[in-house]
Amino acid sequence: MKKSYITILKAVSAIAVVFLHANGCFWFFSYDSYWEWANIIESFFYFAVPVFYMISGATLIDYRDRYSTKEFFNKRIKKAFIPYLFWSFALYLFIVFAKYRSLSSVTIEKLFDVGLNGASLDFFIPLFGIYLSMPIITAVNKKLREKVFVYAAIIGGGLDIAVPFICSLFGFKYKGMSMLACTGALFYVFVGVLLDKKELTKKARYIIYAAGLGGLLAQILGTYFLSYSKGEIVETFKGYFNLPGALYAIAVYLLIKNVAYNKKVWRVTEVIANNSLEIYFFNSILISSIRDVFGLDRYSILFRLGMPFIVIPICIGITWVLRKMPVVKKLVP
Predict the structure, then answer these.
(1) What is the largest CA-CA distance in the chain?
(2) Which of 151, 242, 253, 275 maximizes the CB count within 10 A of its CB?
(3) The three-state (H, E, C) secondary structure of 18-71, written as one string
(4) Angle 294-29-93 (CA atoms, 0-180°, nearest 5)?
(5) What is the 8-class DSSP label of residue 199?
(6) Which of 18, 9, 47 is nearest to 311 (CA)?
(7) 145-192 pLDDT per residue, tens
(8) pLDDT tens readout for residues 8-39
(9) Which positions ≥6 away from 291 have C-beta within 8 Å?
(10) How far apart are CA 162 and CA 244, in angstroms?
(11) Three-state SS for 307?
(12) 305 backbone dihedrals φ, ψ, rounded to 5°
């Protein structure tokens, strides 16, 4: 049975991704006040992708109890990989045609680039790496998992996340020694499993919340002062696999797990969670299309904070229609 907090997390992550895309002006540095607010919005919703990976760890770690590894891959291919490829190519072709009124500029090389690197769906690439790793991770004896995963999270996260950040902050050279069994998104897989399986004491939770708040403030203030000093975006405090972002995302995950929700909140988030994959696929193209058609100001705070409330219902509506179509419905699982 699906855990309710996982459903909430899926919805919150999808909503956060839309806010990030609507706030795309963050990446155009300016001394104008719009960028100051864009920096705050970007940092606040930055937990989206790491939480997305943590959810994958929590929901897939026990797949062997439900079905075989062959069926596991069949499900992932049908529910994620094929829809990802189809919508990546479809949306890319739509953008090219809308811009040039022709597909003559489309080449095999560009299609390969879209498929392999993801364009606006680039966070799916590490997700597929997670899928490929799960048969190895789940082969760890259940009695040993907690100790093994704690070891992986501490050592892997230390070498791959904490040490690079500290070295970057103080200007030290670091050649990037990693624990290869826990690099990149795999760190979040181990953390997601641990947070899902283990109930922490109130004191431990508050320590993590405090660290998460510190990570959020570090992103906001660190990015603000370094970028203002240099006159361009400085990403020392940014990055999904960077210490401030990791601390913040872990705190958000844990907070949502331990908060009670009323029935109205549950119903809304359940609808969003059930359409989260399609929201990831469609939101970016909808944001840019609505902006261009209506001539909206991408730098406006109203646009950046209001667009998700328009785009998310449209994504859900489009998905509802597509799921009624005989063949297409397989591409919107």
Answers:
(1) 61
(2) 253
(3) HHHHHCHHHHCCCCCHHHHHHHHHHHHCCCHHHHHHHHHHHHHCCHHHCCCHHH
(4) 45
(5) P
(6) 18
(7) 999 999 999 999 999 999 999 999 998 888 778 888 898 899 999 999
(8) 999 999 999 999 999 999 999 999 999 999 99
(9) 298, 303, 307
(10) 9
(11) helix
(12) -95, -20
